[in-house]
């Protein structure tokens, strides 16, 4: 029997979680006189009252012996996490469509075929719901998903998104971003799409690439298109979230253009750039000036390491030499907020994944050398994305915040990274989540 098998989360409205080890980077505010361990985690007693965390105190300081309690004996307790970059409209199509060679071009073509053939509302709903059930079971409290928003299919997918947002409200907070190749904003469609996004409470977005085929370098009218996107967003009070330079081509350098456009247009919303892969293949001087511009413009970045590792530097019959990731450490050093996200799941852009941010974080640590020390890394899947996307109290532990927690058997961050944490206990608003991940047979009708 494992340690967590001995833990029975009380059904009581009021109970204590004693001796929980919480990384300080996951706390909304420091807890006075708590003593940090070498991972900068502190031993706390948490009082759960109804759906919220009513008290946080250093272990032994406050919790009376006669109240219902569980004793974590120094095991880790985290807030439920945030996946700020997903594609739950595309996911779980592996049973019916594969990327023929694992390349980016293969992914685009396979997805276009799948979308035009299969993406009726029922199909999108079924796969989105499966994704949300996976995420919820793993302890994800909030997902920002991109939605393929091509003319002709956008309305259907956004309607399903709105329905899912309602259905999952309280369990998984759902945000959506319109995703189209940037040249879709050349004509009148951009305005109609921005209206749809505004009416749906979404975020405006796009890819800094052309539609159709593989485009090297950048679109000649990149600056004008960025101005258009930011202008449409500003008129409607929308934030912007872009797929930027997801490429191993050093000539793909839209990131500084985005920052310049934000400064030029004095855009007041939040701008997020996802991927930014090619930045790490550019000359150092260029990297430095790009990072300075991003910091000045207040651009935030989300890195998607598992998918970058899968898609970048892939050539059939040749072993990859490059990890595909952006300059995470350099960005952090420059004051740019960087979150980690899950991105695609079981689709032509990424054949694997399970909407598990603990797994994404564990892999990101190894892919990007986010260790030695590990202390601040958990924030990249909690407080950092929460602030970037405005997820309110989600993604951190706070007095008065929701009692949404993940309890682990691990006593240190090393133990947490070494094992998949399949035995974790997820608590949603004070109650243990009993639903496990859905069985794959439930996708047998996705064909
Ligand atoms: Zn993406």
Topology of helices and strands:
Elements: E1 14-23, E2 41-49, E3 52-58, E4 69-79, E5 81-86, H1 104-118, H2 121-138, E6 140-148, H3 154-167, E7 173-179, H4 189-199, E8 204-207, H5 222-236, E9 240-244, H6 254-265, E10 271-275, H7 284-297, E11 300-303, H8 305-311, H9 328-333, E12 338-340, H10 357-368, H11 383-389, E13 405-407, H12 413-418, E14 425-428, E15 431-432
Helix pairs in contact: 2-3, 4-5, 5-6, 6-7
Bound molecules: zinc ion.
Fold and architecture overview:
- With 447 residues, the protein is of the alpha/beta class.
- The protein contains 12 helices and 15 strands.
- The chain has helices spanning 104-118, 121-138, 154-167, 189-199, 222-236, 254-265, 284-297, 305-311, 328-333, 357-368, 383-389, 413-418; strands at 14-23, 41-49, 52-58, 69-79, 81-86, 140-148, 173-179, 204-207, 240-244, 271-275, 300-303, 338-340, 405-407, 425-428, 431-432.
- A 7-stranded mixed beta sheet has the order 3-2-1-4-13-14-15, with no helix packed on it. A 5-stranded parallel beta sheet has the order 8-9-10-11-12, with helices on both faces.
- The protein is globular and about 70 Å long.
- It binds zinc ion.
- The site of zinc ion has 6 residues, from loops.
